Structure formats: structure tokens, C-alpha cells
Amino acid sequence: MRSFGFTLIELVITLSIVSILLGFGLPNLFGHIQNSRVKVATQNLFESLELTRSQAVFSNKRITIRKQVQWEEGWEVFIDANNDGLPNNNEQTVKKYEKLKGIRIIANRPVSNYVSFVGSGEGRYANGTSNAGAFQAGAFTVCPQTKGKGYELILARGGRVRTHEISAQDCAAI
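That's the Type II secretion system protein H sequence above. Prediction below.
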């Protein structure tokens, strides 16, 4: 009577082929996951900046987006009723974003702690008074913690945000 199944040699050959294919495929899979994380983080920050600006225009109030400890630790969009750039207990939170894994967000000095928009849609520094404050423009660089390409978000003087891709070399230099 003939039994059905695999011989030991067939199993070893099959496992060898599978391990070779996984050896080539897994690094590419991890690269795709990393690229997706960077894109999602960039899109989240972009949408948060746009949300902050649109809320400021629609409500004709100062709305601020402020980092938690670092930008990659998350951020918060809130109605800045006292124009100081800091979330206080009596100020309403519009939206809060959680920590991003495997991502670095580097903000240049003008936007290192917060971005604040006034009713005209312009980015303006919060100065604690009802005056609009000096204009605020700057850039965010979103890169993976390991080697890979990233994106730069640029906040223009008028409050508009644009984005473009940067190379892995540019990310490594930061």
C-alpha cells in the first residue's frame, strides 16, 4: 500500500526555497512598512496644520498646534483664547495626535514648539496679547529613525503648507 506525504528530502528542499525567498522579500517588506509610516506621519502633520488654519479662518480666532514633548511624541490643536501659544485648562482642544513610532520630526526654529494661525489664515507668533504678532513661517522635516527617504513640510508666510519628498541622504544629514 502506498502512503501519501512528503519525504524528508522534499521537505528540506521546500524549506530551503522558502527561506531563500523570505531572505529576499522581508527586507523589501520592512522598507515598504517604513516608507508607509513616514508618509502617514507626513500626511497627519500636514492635515493637522491645515485643520488648524481652517479652524482659525472659520472661527476668526487664534488656533494653535503645539507639540507634546517633541513633535514625534504627538501634538495638540487647540483654541488659543489667551493668545499665549500654550494649552490651558480653560481652552478647548480641537484634536490631539498620539506618538508616532519609528519617525523623527525636525522643526526649524520658527516652528520648533508651535504654529499659531489667526483669523486671516496667516501663521503668527502668539504673544499673549490680542495683537496678531509677527508672522510665522518655517519647515518640518519628517524622516524615518533608520535610513530612508523623507518629506519636508514648508509653512509659507501666508499660512499655506506645501510638501515635497527629500532623499535618504538629506534625512541622514539631519
